[in-house]
Amino acid sequence: MKPLPIIIDTDPGQDDAIALLLAAASPELELLGVTTVAGNVPLALTTLNARKVLELAGRRDVPICAGADRPLDVPLVTAEHVHGDTGLNGVELPEPTLALDPRHAVAFIVQTLREREAGTVTLCPLGPLTNIALALRQAPDIAARIRRIVLMGGGFFEGGNVTPSAEFNIYVDPQAAHEVFTSGVPITMAPLDVTHEALTTAARIEAIRALGNRVGGVVAAWMEFFERFDEQKYGQDGGPLHDPCVIAWLLRPELFTGRDCNVRVETLSELTRGMTVIDWWSVTGLPVNAQVLRHVDADGFFGLLTERLSALQ
Prior knowledge:
Elements lengths: L3 E7 L3 H11 L4 E8 L6 H14 L7 E3 L13 H4 L21 H11 L5 E5 L4 H9 L7 E7 L15 H5 L1 H8 L5 E4 L1 H4 L6 H8 L4 H21 L9 H8 L4 E6 L1 E3 L10 E3 L11 E7 L1 H12 L4
Parallel strand pairs: 1-2, 1-4, 2-3, 4-5, 5-6, 6-10
Antiparallel strand pairs: 7-10, 8-9
């Protein structure tokens, strides 16, 4: 079976970085490129972090293209209070030698989708959806060429994590999210409702550290830094490992359950801007536009992640 071609659009972030490592270590996936966007930290740092992570993974063959440095029509909000001032606090990685691809992320996405056979490339946004929306604006023809968009973002039963009603990725650029969810492209959505079940408990972190390779030590340190915010917030052992759920769903969809729903994004309300309004109970009669993941087999998820990280240096 041929590997699934994917483009990861990301704003690393410790959990984004772990998602990149999971993808880089999985032969079922053909990582065509990594595009970066401003989100967890500003664009210069998300791009630097993507270069560091791919170099850590030994994947110098994957092009990295910098993209949008701000949302479509609102000021940029970042999350250094969660991820640290670099976005990858917890361990010091060396300055990368891996060069940045000169193409803009949006141009790379459009070019790749036009060059590849229609319906074969999956887009995996792990941050704000700015680059994806810009690509759809600039080249509407690509919508019919995208196999699926599998994204981390939103929430319903769990509410929000940056406001009472909004999850960070959607809140940062709600207009972009609105345009993506109304694009007609098939969407699978990993909201807080599923990612909050993928907790980095002490035992799971120790299993990754016990791998004994460099990547295992780095990932364990990232998890310990990243989880502190959510442990204080929710009073639990461990924090949710959001973004790797996207890659895990591509690899092992049977680990997840959910349902098809209509999803709309609030773009205007001061109180609920960035909220994903998920019609879980089918009360609106509106057409389905997303597969919404709800639960994950957390032990199976961390087993998969640990196994794949063991294959890296």
